[in-house]
Amino acid sequence: MNMVHRIIGTRIGTGGSTGKDYLRAAADKHYIFKDIARLTSFLIERKRLPELGVEMERRLGFLI
After folding, report:
1. In angstroms, rounded to a whole number, what is the distance separating the alpha carbons of residues 27 and 37?
2. Residue 53 CB-density burial (10 A; 0-12 exposed, 13-18 middle, 19+ buried)
3. Is pTM, for the whole model, over 0.90?
4. Which residues, other chains included, contact 41 with Cβ-Cβ below 8 Å and sequence gap of 6+?
5. Is 44 helix (H, G, I), strand (E, B) or coil?
6. Neighbours of 36 (CB within 10 A)
7. Are 3 and 26 in contact (CB under 8 A)?
């Protein structure tokens, strides 16, 4: 939601609604979006992240 607010702010969208407010209302209305919105604030400490294997790094294109 913060990213949307920074990009489109409260400008009027093509449907006449305010961008951020419309998106917030739609996300609150639909249950699946509530779960997805909660995931964006779920952060894991870097030291607790598992290391990627060599093959996974290669497949994802990570350059080290």
Report:
1. 8
2. exposed
3. no
4. none
5. coil
6. 10
7. no
Tokens of 1: 């939601």
- The string over 4-33, giving b where at least 16 C-beta atoms fall within 10 Å of a residue's C-beta and e elsewhere, is eeeeeeeeeeeeeeebbebbbeebeeeeee
Token pair in block for residue 31: 């249950």
In residues, how long is the chain?
Answer: 64
Beta bridge partners of 12: 18
Averages of pLDDT over runs of 10 residues in the chain (64 residues) are 63 59 76 68 79 87 65
- Round to whole Å and give the CA distance between 59 and 49: 18
